């Protein structure tokens, strides 16, 4: 998980960060006030049951502000 945040904060351009927010939030910007967040951002691992994990992609759920990352 730490690796994920390191890569996001140091390797992503500002445009890539905006695209990430759009992927997980469904909007291009985050709320400016803490009170305006509907839910907290959650990252959940998920296990691939068939096929190599290297072929799995993250899954985002914009309605719940959740990102599922393969192991």
TrEMBL record:
Gene3D superfamilies: Hect, E3 ligase catalytic domain. Keywords: Ubl conjugation pathway. It holds the Pfam family HECT. InterPro entries: HECT_dom, Hect_E3_ubiquitin_ligase, HECTD3. Transmembrane segments: none annotated. It comes from the Eukaryota. GO terms for molecular function: ubiquitin-protein transferase activity. Residues 1-71 form the HECT domain. The active site is at 63 (glycyl thioester intermediate). This is HECT domain-containing protein.
């Amino acid at each position: 998980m730490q690796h994920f945040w390191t890569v996001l904060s140091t390797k992503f351009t500002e445009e890539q960060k905006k695209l990430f927010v759009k992927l997980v939030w469904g909007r291009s910007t985050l709320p400016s006030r803490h009170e305006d967040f509907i839910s907290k951002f959650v990252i959940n691992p998920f296990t691939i049951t068939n096929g190599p994990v290297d072929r799995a992609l993250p899954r985002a759920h914009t309605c719940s502000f959740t990102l599922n990352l393969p192991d």
